[in-house]
Amino acid sequence: KDQSVFILDSKGYAIRNSINDIPEVKRPTFGTSVFSSKKQSDIITSTLIKENDNEIAIFTDNGLGKRVSLDEFPIQQRAGVGRIATKLNENTLVVKAIPINSNEENFITMITTNGKSVLEDANRLSLIKRPTYGKTVIKFKDNSNEKLADLILLKD
Predict the structure, then answer these.
(1) What residue ranges of the chain have pLDDT lower than 50?
(2) Residues 107, 100: Cα–Cα separation, whole Å
């Protein structure tokens, strides 16, 4: 089992590529296509999946989050179309995906656009299937423009 890269786009699609399938270049180049999304989308986040990671935590700006087994994202060839990682409505954006090892203690600090932070035990996030919205992990005041802005994984 080698390391892989998990890439998530603005439409909620993700792909997992082996590090060994991404060629090393020795001169300036336009790069290699690793993700061919079916829909017009932008890459939002990418992260390294280490050998011991067995789940990915996915978060959206409206405060939804979930854990998904990495088994639901098999390693694909470069330029694959990926799979639905999370459902999104028109006003929801993906913020970040964080790989975790559920056999270890993992804490996630969630930071909002208003500068507030919340510490959450990552292993308490709902473990659910990939084509779902997720559960509320942080609440915002009604009529507030506050959103989830960033996340930091803290390991014990």
Answers:
(1) none
(2) 10
